Amino acid sequence: MAATVDCLVELGWSGTTTTVVARRAGVSRGAQLHHYPTREELVLAAVAHLGAARFAEARERAAALPDGPGRTAAVLDMLAALHTGPLFRAMLELWVAARTDDALRAAVVPLEAEVGRETHRLTVELLGADESRPGVRAAVQQTLDLVRGLGVSGLLSDATGGREERRRRHLLADWARHLDTRLEA
Amino acid sequence: MAATVDCLVELGWSGTTTTVVARRAGVSRGAQLHHYPTREELVLAAVAHLGAARFAEARERAAALPDGPGRTAAVLDMLAALHTGPLFRAMLELWVAARTDDALRAAVVPLEAEVGRETHRLTVELLGADESRPGVRAAVQQTLDLVRGLGVSGLLSDATGGREERRRRHLLADWARHLDTRLEA
């Protein structure tokens, strides 16, 4: 599973063949094909598996988040980390490949929806957001689309220096202040 | 140029070979290779060309935007259209492919930066935003990262029905109200 996601991150969807993954993972092709007959099944299983592990880890780390002032900013930092790390990049490879591949798309759409719901739930919980109040649900969704956008913006520019990371931190610190007002309004 | 972007949108980066594009455009391989010796050069030229055309078109359409109340919402609709249409999808194919291809990346990074600057300029102009005032530049950048995130969110789900489009409209209408407050503050 880890070797598959590593391949996606390093080589992209087109470079992630079952042969390359089997070699990297040190497993026989027979054993691999027994569990995952196709590249699509292998990659989907790997992304779903590592996604679940990453959420579990995020929930554990969430226990260490500060209470009171600074909590919203800390939650946004955590969300930004989830959207700039290797797993986000692996998922983006999969979403983009699925756009032009009907069979892959049929499998990826429910996975994307599940990841979206789980991220939303985690965010609401960590922010202590009361979605029954007007505007709160929209504020949470905008936050998630913003960090997704920032993740895509960092795709190429993160590697070219710390400038994009500074821009992201600045925008999120500013967003945290406004979000606090919107959650309390 | 148009045939190249059509291929990217329909077939993705991996399906966009010079042979496929030449056949679709009805040009000889010789003529094509004379102008664009590699797939990278062809695709970059096409995306840059259509990007410039799309900006020119957006500036023209901007003349028809309403003044006064409703203008911000209309500008956001226009930005959302720029980030959900075929050109955005073609660009995303290119950004994602460039992530794992060093030669392509070297060419794509400046193009992405230019597109980013141009989009920022257009947005500031259309919103009449005064970036010398505190918080205004951050609000404009958040707007652009938000629409970029919404564009990625719509990548797979836009085709599965109007639900994602309704979500996008709702979030942007809500954001337009907050953005107005922040631009005037």
From TrEMBL, chains A, B:
Keywords: DNA-binding. It holds the Pfam family TetR_N. One of its GO terms (molecular function) is DNA binding. Transmembrane segments: none annotated. Residues 1-54 form the HTH tetR-type domain. The keyword rRNA-binding does not apply. SUPFAM superfamilies: Homeodomain-like. Residues 17-36 bind DNA. InterPro entries: Homeodomain-like_sf, HTH_TetR. Gene3D superfamilies: Tetracycline Repressor, domain 2. This is Helix-turn-helix transcriptional regulator.
